[in-house]
Amino acid sequence: MSAVLKLARPDILALQPYQHAAWEPSLDRLHANEMPWRPDGDPTAAGLNRYPEPQPAELIEHLAQLYGVDPQQVLAGRGSDEGIDLVVRAFCRAGQDSVLICPPTFGMYKVCARIQGADVIEVPLRKDQGFALDTEAILAACATAERPVKVLFLCSPNNPTGNLLDRQAIERLCEELTERAIVVVDEAYVEFARNCPSLSSALARFDNLVVLRTLSKAYALAGARCGALLAHPDIVRLLARVITPYALSTHTVEAVLSLTDAAHVAAAQARIDTLLTERARLAERLAALPLIRQVWPSDANFILVDCTDADRVLSAAVDAGLIIRDPRSQPGLASCVRISVGTPEQNERLLEGIARAAGAAT
Question: Long-range contacts made by residues 95-99, C-beta under 8 angstroms, separation at least 24?
């Protein structure tokens, strides 16, 4: 057993997981209380009358190949959100442990911690340094926390700021927090960062590192709800004790296997290339508009924009038949909006709408 499991909740380590119906596809199933006939119109290969295979072997092998890791390092779940929730539940004791986050960042880290009853410690990103990690402040907070920090969440590229976090800083945190905390790196947007290798290549060096990947963004499968948690095999086995036995539906499994084959991966890369071209065009055009104070550099499929009048920009988007994100409740983003890069036509509509709103304001 890896030393990293000493960080886990003792009751989870001792947990007797749910014993799902044995998976024996060569035998006719009379052991799971399923309906023996398929429903009319069932389009699936496996049959919707049957429970899906827990952690399907074919899917795990496929995701391992897609992300360049060993199958024993992969846990499949419903997007990245399930991985976030599982880590918090397995490592944080209610009322006794803490989660550390670096705002402004993805809101689910705090939500999952609060649901679990864990404290939330916040060490803001350095806005004056392009929303960089404050590594020393993170380490100081971990050292002085009244309730021990068991999980550190980092998002790279970060949502909603769009910037990559410094890899050397992340690796230093993994090193310094060995046997003290799990370091979770959420790479939901990493495919949109040019020439940026995944932190999953560091899994062999840091048994406290967890990397989250999702098919929702780059592979256009947000509706399928499938992601992968990549980690030391001991962490994967631990979290497999906690995850629901049939987390991924038959529809999801078959869609993922079909829509992330070699041809679809190539098509996804072509779409990413187009989106990155649009991201650069959109950023350049936005920066020239009177209602825009600053366009932050982005390594994601969205752009953070500081506005002179955020309300007017948000209204201009609606008037153009579009909706963009209002992140102003987050620290350091009091006058910002977040814009997902759309199709060329959608981006042009947004630019024209903001330009019209600027003209009306003068």
Answer: 95/147, 96/147, 96/148, 97/147, 97/148, 97/149, 97/150, 98/145, 98/147, 98/148, 98/149, 98/150, 99/149, 99/150, 99/151, 99/152, 99/153
How many Å apart are CA 304 and CA 158, to the nearest integer?
11
Q: Which residue has the tokens 């044995």?
A: 22
User: Strand 182-186 relative to strand 119-122: parallel, antiparallel, unpaired?
Assistant: unpaired
| Of 92, 94, 96, 90, nearest in space to 77 by CA | 90
From the list 263, 295, 275, 132, the residue with the least C-alpha distance to 194 is 275
3-state secondary structure of 64: helix
Per-residue pLDDT tens, the chain, 362 aa: give them: 688 999 999 999 999 988 888 888 889 999 999 999 999 999 999 999 999 999 999 999 999 999 999 999 999 999 999 999 999 999 999 999 999 999 999 999 999 999 999 999 999 999 999 999 999 999 999 999 999 999 999 999 999 999 999 999 999 999 999 999 999 999 999 999 988 999 999 999 999 999 999 999 999 999 999 999 999 999 999 999 999 989 999 999 999 999 999 999 999 999 999 999 999 999 999 999 999 999 999 999 999 999 999 999 999 999 999 999 999 999 999 999 999 999 999 999 999 999 999 886 54
| CA 33 to chain centroid | 35
Q: Which two tokens stand for residue 163?
A: 């910037």
β-pair type (227-230, 302-307): unpaired
Strands 182-186 and 292-295: unpaired
DSSP 8-class letter at 156: S
All structural domains of the chain, each given as residue ranges with its CATH number in brackets, are 3-260 (3.40.640.10), 264-361 (3.90.1150.10)
Q: How many residues does the chain have?
A: 362
Residue with tokens 């999980």: 151
